[in-house]
Structure formats: structure tokens, C-alpha cells
Amino acid sequence: MSLRERMRYWFDNTMSRGTASLIGWLALVSVALVLVVAGLTVWLTDEPEGAGIGEVLWLSLMHAMTPSKVASDKGSTAFLAVMFAGSLAGIFIVSILVGLLSNGLKQKIDRLRRGRSMIAETGHTVVLGWSDQVFTIIGELVKAHASQRGSVIAVLADRDKLDMEEEIRERIGDTGRTRLVCRTGRPTEPGDLRLMNLDKARSIVVLSPDGEDPDAHVIKILLALAKRAGDHPPVVASLTSSRNLAAARLAGGDQVHLVDSDDTASRLIVQSSRQSGMSVVCMDLLNFDGGEIYLRSDAALTGQSYGDALHAYQTATVIGLRRAQGVVLNPPMDTVITAEDEVIVIAHDDSLIHLASGAAPLSEKDLAVAPAVAQEPERTLILNWNARAEHIVRYLDGYVAPGSVLEIAADHPKAGAGLDGLRNLTVNVKESDTTDRYALEALGVGLYQHVIVLSDDRFKPQHADTRTLMTLLQLRDMQTVAGERYSIVSEMHDENNRSLAEVTEADDIVISDTVIGLLLAQLAENRHLADVFGYLFDSRGSEIYPRPATSYVTKGVPVSFSTVIESARRRGETAIGYRLASGVNQPPHYGVVLNPSKSQPVTLGEDDSVIVLSER
Fold it and tell me: Do residues 224 and 189 touch, judged by C-beta distance below 8 A?
């Protein structure tokens, strides 16, 4: 390579280094121009008279930087020619300088608009990735931080920063005191993760993205988080498949809590199919609008039994204990609370958790005694099929009595596959178009106690929800015409479609993505609640059951909620609220009232329910 080529290569490299390098070259050219003009002025002219070399240099600089000064020049032809040439060159230099500064400033603004600068927040919650759950999570965290000043939620996703901010504003609206910071980047790249100042973060939420094989993307993010240097704040991540839990645990380490989306949604669908209103109760517990779950240490309860502690708080409801051995909800009523135990309570705010000043009024004469009902075989119908359907069937098998029957009606190619080893269910599979009225009538739906309508995963979420709505409308009309009654529980993707589905008057609608988003938001605020919700959704131990109110108190008679709690306590159950039949189709709580005041009078009728934690 020749010297000329080497010099050209060196020059090209310096020119490609950005705005600063270009301005440096421009400064050298400007210095050279001033020196040449000053030299020509001294050599060719005697003007300005009596001026020293410093004055000539200054005059040359002013003509280069301010070309208009040539209009006021006077002197010889040679002097005017030199000044004109200097001013003409100065026009090009100034023009280039203005262009460089404008372009450099534009690049800096574009970089800021693209969200490529590092944030300097502390105590912030970081959300990595993008899916529809991001709106649920941010909305809930905004509610949780409503009373806090300076709270920040930072989002990193491979999307345009302005598009993210605009979409969040449209879906969530005003974020109150909580500031939202969006950055564009790939959460799997360590360099992009550095933008989020993770060392100072309060917690990290990793979302499972839409598209093929989302769990692989989540696991890669967990690997990137585990390998980074510095402090490691708690991480919460959701997976779509239980098969990937072991790999995710290995990738993320001890600081990561994993939410199995399929498993959680499947359990909730099964419990909702058997106990109408279960999903509404769970969503009320998971969101930050009403009753929330808190862990509380209270020395005044040490030595008391769990049954006595049920009446301890006026505006909070005791539901269980967190002990060294783990979480237990609705433990035996004679369980003694120790100094090391934490009481698990439902309250509308932690400031409302304080001991009652006196015993709430009880009405012994209005306590009802209901005989235990033996479990009998049931008939359940599942319409449609998807990837989590196998989980649903296996959980259902753990609930029903031996000899129960499950019919699966779907035109899905995998319907009924992988169901070997069931203990209590006999499964039959029929090919059927579940949106067709005649096909549904041919199934004899009135023969079943429970109907579960799943979302068909062969279609996009919105299309699948539309098909589900068609099926629900057909079922409701068939019930009306035939005068039949069976519970209908439906699975849907989009929370916005719930208002449309309310026309069908389905007993329960499970929005699986919303439930997972709510759970992630709760765990981002307090990861210790993972054990509580894990116990709540598990088929072992106590679970939430809406049960007939007449089994607990006299119907139509005003009683304090403390009376309801006492009636449930004598049955070994924990009452946490009630559901009024008159409000089952009225959003947002659909008749559910959790954690009412102990002294609050309530009148429960034949169709109302008491919500309890109980063994089956």
C-alpha cells in the first residue's frame, strides 16, 4: 500500500469518528485559512497601516467567521482581494460548521428519542420485554405506588421508545405520581441491560413475549441477568410451559421466582368451573384496587389460637400464617400463634391493619348449621382444546369423585391427547364445531353440571375470543329455550372482550393473561407473597370456595360479618367475604365483597354466597 493510500485510509477513519472529529478537522482548516490570509495580507499589502501581526491575525479571523465584514473594508485592490477570498472561504467554513452542529444535535436528539441513554433512577421497578401483560403490570404498579412520591417504572423492550410510551398512555392513561421511563433495546443483550441501572433497581419483571417459543427468550434474559456483574435485585418471570421450569431455574438462580402461566391459569379455570365466582375473588385479591394480602407480625396475638385471631382485627381479615415451615392458609382453629409467626391478612391498606378495640357483636341465634354433603360423581363438558387443556383435565381429575365423566367436544387435531393415567374421570372425545348451534345441541349439554369453554390456540387471540363469544351466546340461548341450568366457565385472552362476554351471562370468565399480569405485579411488590398465592392455587390444602349463605346464617336477617366469620370458624373454615347474587353481572366486582368490616351488617339471601377458605 502506497503512502498516499495509507494517508487516505487514515483520513477516512478520522472522518468516520463522528461530529467531534469533523469539527476538529474544520478547526484545523479554519486555523490554516486564518494563517494564509494573514500571511498574504502582510506579504502583498501594507494595510492596515501600522498593524502588528496579532492585529492582522484577528482581522483575518473576523473575516473568516463573519464574511459580511468585507462590505466595510477599504484599502488597496490587493488588500480587498485577499479579504474577499478569506471571507468567501469563511462562508464555506461557517456553512459546514452550522451543518455539522445541526446534524450532531439532531443525532443526539434522535438517540434520546430512541431511548438509548442510561437511566439514573434508584429504587425503580424494571420491566424487561413486551406483551399485553405489560399494561396490566404497569397499571397495577401505578395503583400500588399511588401514595408514593418519586416512584419509577422502567421498561426495556425491542420496540420504538415513542411507540411504547404512546401505547401505554392510551391503554393506562394518567400514571399519577409514578414516572414511566421507556428504553429501546434487547433485554437479552448485556449492553442494553446496562441502560436500566439494574444495580439500584427494587425488582425486575421478565415478561414472556408473544410469538413462537417465548420461554426460550425468557431463559436467555435470565442468563443475561445472572451473568451481569454488580448487585442482583429480586427477579420475577413468567413461563408459558411447565416443561421449561427446570431450565429457567438453572438459568436464573436463587434470586428468580418463576410463575408457571399454564399451570396457574389451568388451576384457576378448574376451580372456577366448580365454584362460580372463583376468578373474580382471585382477581380482587391480586389487584391493588380493593383487598390486598399483607404479612403482619403482631406481638399481641402471640399465644392465641388461630380461631381466636379471626376476630382480632376490625378492618382486616386473617386468612393464615407464615411459619418457619412455610405458608398455611386456614390452619386448624386450635393452632397456637408463636412469636416467630407472621399473620397473613386481607386489608384495603396496610394502614388499616390494627387490632379491634373490642369484640364485634355476634348473633348466636342466626348461626346456621348445615350437614356435610357427600361428593358425588359429576359430568363435565369441555368445548375446544389448547396447549393447557391437558393440565386442566388432570387438575379436574384431582377434584371430582370417582366415576365422574368428562366429554371433550372439539375439532382440534390434538383434542384428548396425552390423558393416560386419570384416576377419577372417564374421558370421551367427540369431534364438533363448537360455534355451530346444531352441533352443540347434538351434545346434549343439559346432561352436564359444568361446561368449560376453552380458547382454541389454532387462532390468533382476537379471533379465538370471537369464536368463544359465539359459543357462549349459543349456550346461553340454549339454556333459556330449554330451561336448563349448568355452570359455564370461559377462558379468554383480552380483558377488553370481557364486557362483550358479560352479555352472555357466563358464570365465570377467566382472562388468563390478566391473571398472570396481576400475579407478576403482586410479586414485584412483595416476592414473599409467592408462597401465599402458590398455596391458594394448589389443589392440596385449603382453597377459596363460594358456598350457599344459608349454610352459615339465617337468610333474610341482617347480621354482622363477625357472625358469618364465627359460623365458618365452627366449621373449620375462614370466611373472607361474600357474594351478592344481585350483583353477579355488575362490574368491576361482580357482587363480590372481600374483607368487610366485622361490625358491618349484611343481609344474605337464598342465592347469595359466603366466600370461605376451606378443605374440600
Answer: yes
Q: Report the amino acid identity of residue 355.
A: L
Non-local (6+) Cβ contacts of 266 within 8 A are 388, 391, 392, 395
pTM over 0.85: no
> What digits encode the pLDDT tens for the residues 234-288?
999 998 888 888 899 898 887 788 888 888 888 888 888 887 777 788 888 888 8
Q: Which of 278, 266, 285 is nearest to 487 (CA)?
A: 278
Q: Which of 186, 180, 19 is nearest to 109 (CA)?
A: 19
Q: How far apart are CA 239 and CA 249, in angstroms?
A: 11
d(CA 467, CA 587): 23
**Cell digits for 520?**
407478576
**Sequence-separated (6 or more) residues with CB below 8 Å from residue 276:** 487, 489, 507, 508, 546
Q: Tell me the three cell numbers of residue 343.
A: 399473620
Amino acid letter at 335?
T
- Phi first, then psi: what are they for 320, rounded to 5°? 175, -170
CB 337, CB 309: distance < 8 Å: yes
CA-nearest of 483, 517, 476, 504 to 584 is 504
- What is the 8-class DSSP label of residue 268? H
* Segment 185-210, tens digit of pLDDT: 899 888 889 989 999 999 999 998 87
